[in-house]
Design brief:
single chain, alpha/beta, six-stranded antiparallel beta sheet, 26 strands, globular, binds fructose -6-phosphate, carbohydrate derivative binding
Length: about 600
């Protein structure tokens, strides 16, 4: 993770670097730093914690200079203090880094034996130390950079500045993303085009194995042996305006309330509401001809894929193999060319998801990317891109991207059902009608349940452990509920398939462990109610999230019952996501945690 920027400018850069970092804070916020060269002297300001600490430091001790690099950190090696904050300086070499240098320990031991003195606990410092060593041996800056690149292994985006050359920045990519921006007499580097949007929309994306030397008006790109390579220019669509919270307290709250609107954007990309059919580009993936679908993603995106598995298998009779990407990439799953693969990622940059994509690509599969960031690496490496059109998601906990992923997956499953002849025309129309009701139903639910969720959250915030249960597509929703609650409120929560309760977790049930049961009145309702009986019989407290029919059918005592409207089974996951998200959000607000930037997390996970 981490966000990096660099400017070879013709006017002061420190303020602009910090502004660009603000657009990258979603990548990490453990510490931040900026370095510039002013009148031949390289200097830096760094601060632990969020960017405003760095801003305060810069206000007290400003940095001049028209060239600089900057970094916002998500700590991997070394605690998140000021010493470990980037940029790292060694003998006139400044380095910012996103990723992990895997062989740093061996290289550090080697350099220490040669007399090098390390001042940080980071893996990044090895980059500056190695370049410094080659310069001492007489290499020029560029040769030293290439020599360093041929010695480090791992995943990295690197930006390097040299005190003896105030007109040049160098960069390298092997794994995490890096974009070069072309301005007027100024050049920029950034982890993504969003960071560079206020400066330019003329972007070149570096690819793995690229090393770039950036001057005021040009970029020379080579491979790591120094051989020139050509990369195409692209016009970025990223907006120059930082999204704001509007009248909401947090981005997460705003994003929860945006869902009815963004879902309608997502749906209108896949659905012809007039003919009530799904519109799919068959050149991306021809679901009619596919024998099996491999699906992989991480975290919340994985859970949307898990819901998608139920849909593809039920409505399109298409077998789905799904796994979290960190396992999928190493499973060596046998795959054949008549299968296709779907990768789901809000950011489109998640390292494990990308590695899984590349594994499937090597096996000759057609690749579909379900992404929010259309210019992301996953989008660029997919044969077909299925945008979720959720708009920028700033809150670290994913909300609107999740329901938009679900809307896209539902559309794809219906389209696949039609192509495979497993859904009739009438069934397709019926399902499309249900999807088209979503924005209205979601908006009604958001208005209706808000006060109840706030008072329930006050109760929930008194507990230390919470269990979520669900069956069918409500099982991934139980996992999502637990994930959302733990990541932002820091309350320990687990999600279980309701039927698994008696195979272990039931031992935990007592009055101190609320059990949140997600159960619309669907095919599984009676069975889930039996599991609730098992909880009630052991003195467990139940929070029941159900619909009108479910509330009328169950007579069990509960701590609270949240009643949603009766909806078609297909759209229930999107509707039931709302109380799940609101409960986590309000609980976190009561607990006083940092809702939008919870501790230890980052929005884009570009390390394994
Ligand atoms: C949880 C959350 C994470 C992400 C995961 C994947 O609220 O946001 O679990 O879903 O890190 O990220 P993307 O979708 O960017 O690949």
């Amino acid at each position: 993770m981490c966000g990096i920027v660099g400017i070879v400018g013709n006017k002061p850069v420190a303020g602009r670097l910090v502004d660009a970092l603000k657009r990258l804070e979603y990548r990490g916020y453990d510490s931040a730093g900026v370095a510039t060269i002013d009148n031949g002297v390289m200097d830096r300001r760094r601060a632990e914690g969020k960017l405003f600490n760095l801003e305060k430091r810069l206000a007290d001790e400003p940095l001049g200079g028209n060239i600089g690099i900057a970094h916002t950190r998500w700590a991997t090696h070394g605690v998140p203090n000021e010493t470990n904050a980037h940029p790292h300086f060694v003998e006139g070499v400044a380095v910012v880094h996103n990723g992990i240098i895997e062989n740093f320990a061996e290289l550090r031991d080697e350099l220490m034996r040669e007399g090098a003195h390390f001042t940080t606990q980071t893996d990044t410092e090895i980059v500056a130390q190695l370049i410094a060593k080659y310069r001492r041996q007489g290499y020029d800056n560029r040769a030293a950079m290439l020599a360093m690149l041929n010695h480090v292994t791992g995943a990295y985006a690197l930006v390097v500045m040299f005190e003896n050359d105030p007109d040049t920045i160098m960069a390298a990519r092997f794994g995490p993303p890096l974009a070069i921006g072309f301005g007027k007499g100024e050049m920029f580097l950034g982890s993504d085009a969003i960071a560079l949007a206020p400066f330019t929309n003329d972007i070149v994306y570096m690819v793995d194995g690229d090393c770039a030397v950036i001057h005021h008006d040009s970029a020379e790109i080579t491979d790591f042996s120094g051989k020139p390579v050509e990369r195409p220019h692209q016009i970025s669509q990223a907006s120059a305006f930082l999204v704001d919270k509007g009248n909401h307290r947090h981005f997460m709250e705003k994003e929860i309330h945006e869902q009815p609107e963004v879902i309608s954007h997502a749906l209108s990309n896949y659905i012809d509401f007039h003919s009530q059919t799904v519109r799919l580009d068959e050149t991306a993936i021809d679901f009619g001809k596919v024998s099996r679908l491999a699906v992989s993603a991480c975290g919340t995106a994985y859970l949307s894929g898990l819901v998608g598995k139920y849909w593809f298998e039920r409505y399109a009779r298409l077998p789905v193999e799904i796994d979290v990407a960190s396992e999928f990439r190493y499973r060596e799953m046998p795959l054949s060319k008549d299968e296709a693969a779907l990768f789901i990622s809000q950011s489109g940059e998640t390292a494990d998801t990308l590695a899984s994509l590349r594994y499937c690509k090597e096996q000759g599969l057609r690749i579909g990317g379900i992404v929010n960031v259309k210019e992301s690496t996953i989008a660029r490496e997919s044969d077909g891109v299925y945008p979720i059109l959720a708009g920028p998601e700033i809150g670290v906990a994913s909300t609107k991207a999740f329901t938009c992923q679900l809307a896209v997956l539902a559309s794809l499953a219906i389209g696949a059902g039609r192509m495979r002849g497993t859904l009739t025309e009438a069934e397709e129309k019926q399902m499309v009608r249900s999807l088209s009701e979503l924005p209205r139903i979601m908006s009604g639910v958001l208005n209706d349940i808000q006060p109840q969720m706030e008072s329930l959250a006050r109760e929930l915030s008194k507990f230390h452990h919470v269990l979520y249960l669900g069956r069918g597509t409500s099982y991934p929703m139980a996992l999502e509920g637990a994930l959302k609650l733990k990541e932002i409120s820091y309350i320990h929560a687990e999600g279980y398939a309701a039927g698994e309760l008696k195979h272990g977790p039931i031992a935990l049930i007592d009055e101190n462990m609320p059990v949140i049961v997600i159960a619309p009145h669907d095919r599984f309702f009676e069975k889930t109610v039996s599991n609730m009986q098992e909880v009630a019989a052991r003195g467990g407290r139940i929070i029941f999230i159900t619909d009108e029919k479910g509330a009328a059918a169950s007579k069990l005592p509960t701590m609270a019952t949240i009643v949603l409207p009766n909806v078609a089974e297909l759209i229930a996951p999107m509707v039931f996501a709302l109380p799940v998200q609101l409960l986590a959000y309000h609980t976190a607000v009561f607990m006083g945690t940092d809702v939008d930037q919870p501790r230890n997390l980052a929005k884009s996970v570009t390390v394994e």
